[in-house]
């Protein structure tokens, strides 16, 4: 019994000793690697942080299959804190120096993503606001540790390096939530005329919006095979076609459909031909509908809705981008339908007027 008790008591002591040994080893290793010369120390700190961040990013994307908290929150925090701690260890660092070295490290890291064809320019531009903010916060954390609790510097680095892949594994099992985006437009034409232009429409003009000149996919035209539930609608984009079997055909009030196939959401702007994993099954459109409501004076309120989910986190941030892009796509389609429907109505009105005038003679 006494032996068992002593064994139990020794276990936490042994673990603590192992922790202190690993921390001490980490400190010794860092001291050996980091030069005393300021300039060399700076670039060594940046290089080590970029290499570790890059390896963790590749592991998270290609092995774990996650674009989430680990990549977009913890990695920028590590970039800011890691470079600051490595540079400022045993010599101190100002807040300005911390931010400068963090920003430089982030710049080199993102340049590496471009050069090695891991990401394209547009995706990096979308991630830039949150990456800059969190790198700055990481730099402040690194500055606080160096100047207030320098003995915790090595432990902090180990924790940051360890928590990134751990979070990626945790996120892997999270189910994404379905989100809806609704856009509406008022059309000076009755629902029956609008309906004909909803189920299919001719080729759209080239977009003038900047967002569609960056590689983001946009609609070209729509075709339909059939005229009731079970019909298949093809909404053709610049990167391919959405295949949309009709689930509700309530002419001329509601057209609802599932999405069983979809193309890539964008073509990356890059020096290389990039086929990043997030272009496949990370942004998924599930359903869509067009709802037509008759208004006074023969007008129609047309609402377009898309239900989608994406496996990119943090959701609150990336939904800002995806909702904005979907609204732009909706507006492009709804405006085209409005133009065609109103043109058809004017043409019909002129024809009827001509018939009436011929009978009056």
Kindly describe this structure.
The protein is an alpha+beta fold and 361 residues long. It has two domains: 34-171, no CATH class; 179-360, START domain (Alpha-D-Glucose-1,6-Bisphosphate, Chain A, domain 4, 2-Layer Sandwich). 56% of the residues lie in helices and 17% in strands. It has eight helices and seven strands; from the N terminus they run ααααααβαββββββα. Strands 1-7-6-5-4-3-2 form a seven-stranded antiparallel beta sheet, with helices on one face. Helix 2 (38-64) runs antiparallel to helix 3 (69-88), helix 3 packs across helix 5 (121-148) and helix 4 packs antiparallel against helix 5. The longest helix has 46 residues, at 315-360. The protein is elongated, with a radius of gyration of 29 Å. The termini are far apart.
Topology diagram in text:
Layout: H1 2-33, H2 38-64, H3 69-88, H4 95-115, H5 121-148, H6 153-171, E1 179-187, H7 191-199, E2 219-225, E3 232-237, E4 240-250, E5 254-258, E6 283-294, E7 300-310, H8 315-360
Antiparallel strand pairs: 1-7, 2-3, 3-4, 4-5, 5-6, 6-7
Helix pairs in contact: 2-3, 2-4, 2-6, 3-4, 3-5, 3-6, 4-5, 7-8
Key terms for this structure?
361 residues; Alpha-D-Glucose-1,6-Bisphosphate, Chain A, domain 4; 2 domains; alpha+beta; disordered N terminus; 17% strand; 7 strands; 56% helix
Order of helices and strands: HHHHHHEHEEEEEEH
Question: What portion of residues belong to β-strands?
Answer: 15-25%
Please bin the fraction of helical residues.
55-70%
Tell me the number of strands.
7
């Amino acid at each position: 019994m006494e032996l068992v008790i002593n064994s139990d008591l020794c276990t936490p002591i042994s673990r603590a000793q192992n922790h202190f040994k690993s921390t001490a080893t980490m400190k010794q290793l860092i001291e050996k690697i980091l030069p005393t010369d300021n300039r060399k120390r700076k670039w060594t700190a940046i290089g080590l942080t970029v290499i570790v961040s890059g390896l963790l990013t590749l592991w998270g994307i290609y092995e774990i299959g996650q674009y989430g908290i680990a990549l977009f929150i913890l990695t920028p925090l590590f970039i800011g804190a890691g470079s600051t701690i490595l540079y400022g260890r045993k010599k101190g660092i100002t807040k300005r120096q911390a931010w400068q070295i963090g920003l430089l490290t982030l710049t080199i890291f993102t340049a590496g993503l471009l050069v090695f064809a891991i990401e394209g320019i547009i995706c990096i531009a979308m991630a830039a606001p949150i990456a800059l903010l969190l790198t700055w916060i990481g730099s402040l954390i690194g500055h606080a540790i160096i100047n207030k609790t320098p003995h915790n510097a090595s432990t902090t680095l180990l924790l940051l390096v360890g928590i990134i892949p751990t979070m990626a594994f945790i996120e892997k099992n999270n189910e994404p939530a379905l989100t809806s985006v609704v856009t509406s437009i008022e059309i000076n034409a009755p629902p029956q005329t609008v309906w004909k232009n909803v189920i299919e429409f001719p080729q759209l003009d080239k977009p003038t919006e900047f967002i569609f000149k960056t590689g983001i996919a946009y609609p070209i035209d729509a075709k339909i095979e059939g005229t009731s539930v079970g019909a298949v609608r093809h909404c053709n984009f610049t990167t391919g076609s959405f295949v949309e079997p009709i689930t509700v055909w309530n002419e001329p009030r509601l057209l609802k459909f599932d999405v069983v196939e979809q193309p890539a959401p964008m073509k990356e702007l890059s020096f290389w031909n990039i086929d990043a994993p997030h272009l496949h099954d990370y942004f998924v459109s599930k359903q869509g509908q067009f709802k037509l409501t008759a208004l006074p004076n023969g007008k129609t309120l047309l609402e377009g809705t898309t239900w989608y989910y994406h496996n990119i986190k943090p959701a609150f941030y990336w939904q800002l981008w995806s909702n904005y892009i979907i609204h732009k796509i909706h507006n492009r389609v709804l405006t085209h339908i409005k133009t065609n429907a109103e043109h058809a109505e004017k043409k019909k009105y002129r024809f009827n007027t001509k018939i009436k005038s011929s009978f009056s003679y």
